[in-house]
Amino acid sequence: MLRTETLSINVGPQHPSTHGVFRMLLTLDGERVVDLKPYFGYLHRGIEKTAEQRTYLQNVPFTDRLDYICGMSNNLAYALAVEKLAGIGPIPERAEYLRVIMAELTRVVNHCVAVGFLLNDLGAFFTPVLYCLRQREYILDLFEMASGSRMTPSYIRPGGVAEDVPPEFIPAAKKVVAGLPAFVDELDQLLTGNEILMARLQNVGVLPPERAIAYGVTGPVLRASGVAYDIRRAEPYSIYDRFDFDVVTEPGQDAYARFLVRLGEMRQSARILEQALAQIPEGPVMAEGVRRIRPPAGEAYARIEAPKGELGFYLISDGSPNPYRFRVRPTSLINLQALRDMCVGHLVADVVVILGSIDLTMGEVDR
Amino acid sequence: MTELDIISRLQAALPGLAAEPVEGAKDPTLRVPVGDLVRVASWLRDEAGYDYLSNVTGVDRGEQFEVVYHLYSIARGGGPLVLKVSGPWDQATVPSLVSIWPAAEFQEREVYDLLGISFAGHPDLRRILLWEGFPGHPLRKTFENRTVPNAEMVATMADEEVPHAEN
Amino acid sequence: MPSLNNLFGFLQDWISGKLSGFLPPWGVTLAMMAITIVVLLLFLVVTVMYLTYLERKVLARIADRLGPNRAGPLGIAQPVADVLKLIVKEVIVPARADVAVYFLAPVVMVAPALLPYAVLPFGPRMVPADISVAVLFVPAVTSITTLALLMAGWGSGNKYSLLGGLRAVAQKVSYSIPLLLSFLAVVLVTGSLSLVRIVEAQASYPFLLAQPLGFIIALICCVAEVNRSPFDIPEAESELVAGYHTEYSGVGFAMFFLAEYIGMFTVSAMLAILYLGGWQGPLLPPYIWFLIKVYLILCVMFWLRGTFPRVRVDQLMNLSWKVLLPLAMVNVVVVALVDKLGLRLGFLPGLVASLVVMAAAGAILRSRRPARPAAPPRRGWQVREA
Fold first, then answer.
1. Is residue C374 part of a domain?
2. A131, CA 20 to 30 Å: which among A194, B25, B158, C296?
3. C240 and C209: one domain?
4. DSSP letter string over C207-266?
5. C233 or A332: which carries more pLDDT confidence?
6. pLDDT tier at C1 (50, 70, 90 boundaries)?
7. For A41, which of B77, B129, B166 is closest by C-beta distance?
């Protein structure tokens, strides 16, 4: 009999398609993946330790830089955790509406980047990336209007939001949101029925629902395996129980299903945004008496449905102005656990596609 | 069925269990002795439907270490149930829950990496964010977080030990 | 005053007339050959340079960008800048390279790529050599470049380049066969292997109308032959395996680049001649028509590159051997039958027969798609309890 050997190949850490600094050690038998070992930690900045030496308010900019594509959502999760820990409340209505608006705009931004770069990894010459990034630019302009910064806003703070939006924000946001369904329709028309896309994404990276739940996978990856679990419905936070939207689920379990879920979620975000922009009241944007945050000793865990999945903050306080323990439940790290299962048995060319369909940001994996 | 009901059912189902609910916690919390952790976890997953382990956190409480688990039920839609185990630092070993919830795999590695708490029975317990040979465990309170001026980066592994691809 | 139509014919006669004033007849022939070669090479080099410019502009517009617009007005001087840059770049030879093979590979790539221009007719009297087996000559000569891919992959001394080279060779060889079969269908109808004769046979209607299936197969195969997206696995950066020309820089890389674009022009010219009617067309001079048709096909190639994702290697081979090859064989049989029937209805019988075959093939392919769980409708997502 022929003696065959398996081949060990490194993908990354410098590679155009690994979405950040990420290394995979693939063991191949011919062209099929037999084993996959992920190595990361290249972007580890010690945020959890450093946050123990800063006050609760000073830690808000750290949260921007976790999953740097979705700054506003991270801020929101942290704000909810601090509010639960310190018993801050009630949050003014206008602040709640602004939070929901920013979180849903962030969801659109993240899915634009995810879909665009998935297609870039597939080899479509950069065209879908630029179409998605164009839409993202409109939304980043809104973020800049509200917070002064496009990517690391530090806008949503414990107690409300940092400051009120300028008067031209709401009309500009309405205009952007009005154009969103047409944009998703355009992407749908150009991409969803494309033969080559379907051939590359269907039956690639199949993750059955029981495995997904067992691995702790959340977000679009879980919902693309047919599990209709969305924290905005399961454990509503902020004012999400007032809005009318659907939980987008697909039975496909493969990369194509994840792609469809992200497109569908963009449509649902547009729905929520329409409702929020129509109903937003006037008023203050920060709760009363939130000065120096000194929570009593205790702990709190708050989680949100971030664009990539469940983002949670677990904070322990010992009565001092600094947190005793600042723990980030890293969405991307936990979603990454399913990568090995999804890739084994596929060809090498599919590994990059599967990685793109999980949608990772190394800032969140490594912190 | 609320979490408190579940805790009383648990105490009824597993006799000899020295677990107590924690008073005054914001989420229903159960403190479990280290030896009973696996029993309690299997019961919670199989009988009470907690199929989703959301978060594993390690905490340095000075004299003691603590590991905190946040459990949810996707099937029933149940809210958080928090399990806590603790012990003295000279016996910093906790049984691994990877066989019950594979979601614990990378998170337990991270707790090992940053705090030095070992997990017995973990399939691949090695450092995940820092490199093998990093001196110490940063999240411990005894680890000084300071900038060392003019520090020299000393290689802690010989060239042959650094893991490489073979070809 | 010579009409524009006959410009090159007039020029040929005028120059040879002047030359025969002081050269013996064999000298005139030699001089004419030399002039033709120089003119052709100049034309090719300038065309290819500005083809890269056109491609970048078209791709940019597809991707909602502007394209090169800094070097000169509207970026016109961009190709000049690119050529200068490539020429002055340092040529880094890998340490483990097989030096002779490494340096010969670009030469073996470019030289055969230039040969087909000896037989491609740009107009009625604008063929350097009207040989009677041109349809055989062109694919034969361009397939020598396949050897160059292997030489580049091996000569680089890099395991991944070798694998990339092997894949490129497999791709070229697999896609040559349906391509030649589609050419065969055209040759069957015209009864001649001469390109000039084939263009003349399309005086009333182009073969595209009579054999649309053949044209589609030929177009797909041509795109795969020149390693263009969506079949550009050998050159892709985001694939794991490096391409066959990764270890080339400077002039070596420029040669591969040049050969790719010359190849693109060649296959587009073949498609224009065999299916679109070559230089036939009303009003405009014939060589203008020819160039319009070639550039039309080139723009379609740019369009494909800017829109489609890449095909995976195993899907590529499947497409060629399991789809295109049977279709091309059926195409030959159908064309032969239609020709034998001898109905004097112009292109209609061929068109109808091709459409029937395409519909049948489409139905068969669709029924063989892998089964997926039933998807919910695309709009109006249903609410599930959560």
1. no
2. C296
3. yes
4. HHHH-HHHHHHHHHHHHHHTT-TTS-GGG-SSSSSPPTTTT--THHHHHHHHHHHHHHHH
5. A332
6. low
7. B129
**Range with lowest mean pLDDT among A118-127, A179-188, C264-273:** A118-127
Which domain does C140 fall in, by range? 91-365
Q: Are C199 and C153 members of one domain?
A: yes
B146: pLDDT confidence band, cut at 50, 70 and 90? low
Long-range contacts of C134-139 (CB under 8 A, 24+ apart): C134/C193, C134/C194, C134/C195, C134/C196, C135/C183, C135/C186, C135/C187, C135/C193, C135/C194, C135/C195, C135/C198, C135/C274, C136/C193, C138/C266, C138/C270, C139/C176, C139/C179, C139/C180, C139/C183
Q: How far apart are the first and last CA of chain C?
A: 84
Whole-angstrom CA distances from A18 to A13, A23, A47, A131, A355 are: 8, 8, 23, 21, 7
By DSSP bridging, strand A325-329 and strand A309-317 are antiparallel
3-state secondary structure A18-36: CCCCCEEEEEEECCEEEEE
Residues 36-55 of A with CB under 8 A from B: 40-41, 44, 46, 48-50, 52-53
Cβ-defined contact of A216 to B101 (cutoff 8 Å): yes
Question: Is the domain of C211 the same as that of C283?
Answer: yes
Interacting residues of B33 by C-beta distance below 8 A, sequence separation 6+ = B18, B19, B85
Q: List the structure tokens of C85.
A: 């840059």
Q: What is the mean pLDDT of chain A?
A: 89
- Give the gap in angstroms from C-alpha B105 to the nearest C-alpha of chain A: 8
Three-class DSSP category at C344: coil
- A193-204: per-residue pLDDT in tens? 888 888 889 888
Long-range contact pairs involving C323-327 (C-beta distance under 8 Å, separation at least 24)? C323/C361, C323/C365, C324/C175, C324/C178, C324/C217, C324/C220, C324/C221, C325/C177, C325/C178, C325/C181, C327/C178, C327/C213, C327/C217, C327/C357, C327/C361
Checking if the pLDDT of B49 tops 50, the result is yes
Nearest to A130 among C65, C372, C383 (CB): C65
Reply yes or no on whether the pLDDT at C263 is more than 50: yes
Domain end point (choices C88, C115, C131)? C88
Residue with tokens 């062109």: C138
Number of domains, chain C: 2
Same domain? For C47 and C110 the reply is no
Q: Is the pLDDT score of A16 beyond 70? A: no
Q: Can you spell out the DSSP letters for A299-325?
A: EEEEEEEETTEEEEEEEEE-SSSS-SE
Tell me what percent of the residues of chain A surpass a pLDDT of 70.
Answer: 99
Q: Which residues of A touch B60 (CB under 8 A)?
A: 325
* Whether C230 and A233 lie within 8 Å, measured CB to CB: no
Q: Give the C-alpha separation, A50 to B145, whole Å.
A: 8
Nearest to A329 among B54, B138, B165 (CB): B54
Identify the band that residue A275 occupies on the pLDDT scale cut at 50, 70 and 90: very high
Taking residues A244-249, report their average pLDDT.
89
Banded pLDDT at C246 (limits 50, 70, 90): confident
Q: What is the pLDDT of residue A335?
A: 92
Residue, of B158 and C111, whose pLDDT is higher: C111
Please report which confidence band the pLDDT of residue B152 belongs to, taking 50, 70 and 90 as the band edges: low
If asked whether residues C57 and C143 sit together in one domain, one would say no
Q: Same domain, yes or no, for C31 and C101?
A: no
Residue-wise pLDDT for C6-40, tens only, equals: 777 788 888 888 888 888 888 888 888 888 889 88
Residues C44 and C131 in one domain: no
Cβ <8 Å between A125 and C305: yes
Rounded Cα distance between B135 and C137, Å, is: 70
| Alpha-carbon distance values, A366 to A219, A332, B97, B107 (Å) | 19, 9, 22, 12
